[in-house]
Amino acid sequence: MKLFAIFILIVASGIASGSAAWFLANRKHEAKLHSANEQIQTQAKLIKEHQLKPEGEKQEQSQSAPAKTERKVRLYRCPMHPHVTSAKPGKCSICGMNLTAVYDDDESAPADETHVKLGSASSSVIGVSTTPVKVAPLRRTLRVAGIISDDETRHRILSARVPGRIEKLHVNQIGLEVVRDQPLATIYSPDVLTAQRIYLENLRVGSAIISASDMASSREKLLALGLVEEDIRRIEESKKPEATLVVRTPFDGTIISRGKANEGQYVNVNDELFEIGDFSTLWFIFDAYERDLPTLALNQKVSVTLPSQPGETITAPIDFIDPNLNETTRTVRVRVVLPNPQRRILYRQTANGVVQIETPPALLVPRSAVLHTRERPVAYVTAESGAYQLRELKLGRVGDDDAEVLDGLKEGEHVVTQAALLIDSQAQLSHISSVGHHETTPTPPPPADANDHALHDPAAPAVTLPPALIQAAVEATAALAADNLDDYRKHLPSLKAAVRQSYGTVHDILDPLAEKLVPGEDLKAVRRPFEGFSNALAELVRARPVEQRPAKIFQCRMSPVLGTALWIQKDNAEVKNPFFGAEMPNCGAELK
């Protein structure tokens, strides 16, 4: 019974506490309703008083309030195809979407059609950087290749002056150093014997019978046959004619080659015996193209490097520039004289030269800021409100890092040096490069097979796209579409190598974008830089006629970075989006 009584007390206390809690909650709820009711009544009273005010008071209140300004519509534009604009509302002539209004006070819309505006997030993602235009000397490094030749003023070919037989060969090796008047070979010749006998007979008879002219003629004949003053003096002293002739070197030099100089060899007049050159000084000769001639001058220093002397540089001035242009190669021969006292420089070896050229101060722009995607070079200059203005340039001389600007820029202006191609791609998609906006009349959407033909300019010049580049890009694109990061990393080196090995427009456009392609830690990190590269490559493919394109082109209108971007696939009509992968694999459409 005691236990039952205790149980009853516990239940009763619980009911009592619950009732108390319910009572307190109910009181709070009633208080809230009462407060809300009072607020409603107060608002109703204020509204009623406002409605009962005299007309004059309401007019005064409306005049005291700030007047609303009506926004002025500048034009209407398609959100998917920004180049499709109109002065009246309507639908896009390409995709059929409603045209959206662009207001004059809209900060996102540039006031000038030569401007491109990117959000701060977009500028940060694509890595926009700028550099000021400056006045400074233009520096250029001219690298040339040539050969080492000997001094042509000290090059001799020794030929036989008389017919005969080589009795003895004093020098029988090529490359030997010889000195002036050193004997090279001894030739037995009856003609030499006959000439000496005539000369001795004239000496014996004397001037009483032989005239002075005949005596001089016989002496000159000996000299013409190859005898020297020492040989003639020896004959005059001995009074005995000799049937041999000694061939001697005319100067200090090196034996370059040997003709018919062999003991026992019969030779005729003008047969080549030896070729001798002076290697104490050598010539470095290179070919300069026509475009490089204005930058070359006499006494200009050239740094010469030789494969046989790694790490060493020989600096010498330009000694001669040939005034004759080679019609076949369109080049001019340039000569640099190199001292070679220790004979370390080898005759006829190849060599490389570097000419450092510096011009007087000029207005310079970084080469990375100049784009050659149009008929004339262009650059983008930072404008107000975070916009970028397109400028056409007139360029002069081009250096290693800078180019001379003759027209189009001013000193101190900031030009875009990185991500300029991406800004230009956005400008071309919006047709910002044209003067004024491109107005179209709103029309019903075209058939699906005409999609995006307006974006392609059939008059655009085709460029040469290396097959290795297309193959590497297709494989990298497929890896990202399959969310295969390891496969993308495997194909990335071959893709970047293919870009480096390209040339011309392809290299200039893709190389800065390829440098930003990195293996990355995840798919998101590698897809962001790949989007800009893929879009630029697809635009190059798109510039070719449809029947000559090496791959198919697909477009995604929801790409993470650019908003609208392209990619290429090879012989595959199924859409495989590399920018989203498995998240949205079929987002996109093929462009014809």
Report the average pLDDT across residues: 79
Look at the helices and sheets and give the structural class: alpha+beta
**Mind describing the biggest β-sheet?**
6 strands, antiparallel, barrel
Proportion of residues in helical segments? 25-40%
In angstroms, what is the radius of gyration? 46 Å
Strand order of the largest sheet: 6-15-18-17-16-19
What is the number of strand segments? 27
Number of contiguous helices = 11
Distance between the termini: 96 Å
Strand fraction equals: 25-35%
Shape: elongated
Which blocks of ≥5 consecutive residues have pLDDT under 50? 1-34, 39-44, 46-66, 107-111, 432-462
Q: How are the SSEs ordered, and which strands pair?
A:
Elements: H1 2-52, H2 55-64, E1 73-77, E2 85-86, E3 100-103, E4 115-117, H3 120-126, E5 129-132, E6 134-150, E7 155-159, E8 164-169, E9 177-178, E10 183-188, H4 190-205, H5 212-224, H6 229-238, E11 244-248, E12 253-258, E13 266-267, E14 272-277, E15 281-289, E16 301-305, E17 314-321, E18 331-339, E19 350-366, E20 378-382, E21 387-392, E22 394-398, E23 402-407, E24 414-418, H7 420-429, H8 467-481, H9 485-501, H10 504-514, H11 523-542, E25 552-559, E26 563-569, E27 589-591
Antiparallel strand pairs: 1-2, 1-3, 4-21, 5-24, 6-15, 6-19, 7-14, 8-10, 8-13, 9-12, 10-11, 12-14, 15-18, 16-17, 16-19, 17-18, 19-23, 20-21, 22-23, 25-26, 25-27
Helix pairs in contact: 4-5, 8-9, 9-10, 10-11
